[in-house]
Amino acid sequence: MIEKNTGIKRLMFALVYSLQGLYAGIRYESAFRQEFILLLLLGVVNLRSV
Fold it and tell me: Cβ distance 1 to 11 under 8 Å?
């Protein structure tokens, strides 16, 4: 029988897969990279205005 990941282990795998997808998007997709940089810049501007 196949053992399923549950609880914290399942969350950790989901986090790792999400970070791998984010890294792949930044590395290989120029439009994603542009939007990510824009998100970072606007986040900094927003924090400075608070």
Answer: no
Range 8-12 average pLDDT = 95
Name the pTM for this structure: 0.71
- Describe the crossing of helices 30-49 and 8-28 by its angle, rounded to 10 degrees: 110
- Cα–Cα distance measured from residue 1 to residue 22, given in angstroms and rounded to the nearest whole number: 32
Residue 31, CB half-sphere, CA atoms under 13 Å: how many? Answer: 0
CA dihedral 36, 37, 39, 44 (to 10 degrees): 150
